[in-house]
Amino acid sequence: xxxxxxxxPDEVRAAxxxxxxxxSLMLVALIVAVLASYAGTTLLTPALVVMAIGVFGxxxxxxEILVSRQIAAQKxxxxxxxxxxxxxxERGRRPAGRRAPLQG
Length: 104
Known about the structure:
By secondary structure, this protein is mainly α. It contains two helices and no strands. The N and C termini lie far apart (49 Å). The model has no long low-confidence stretch (mean pLDDT 81).
């Protein structure tokens, strides 16, 4: 039983990559801050500043993912649609039983 997974829109994937990079930067800064605190060096302050920026960037990236997913879902639904099925492909199809006669 295999399920078909649709590919994420480009905006969502780009936002996810930015959030992942920000999170990894924050983790590296956290490790540097812990090691600098054990060693007693002056590298602790810049590492804490970079870690704070990483926390802010990660939160921003997660919000960006949520917003870009909502925008992609609205684009998929169609303009001025209230329900998720208003913009679906099924709406524009004719019934398979009878076709309209040709003019001419």
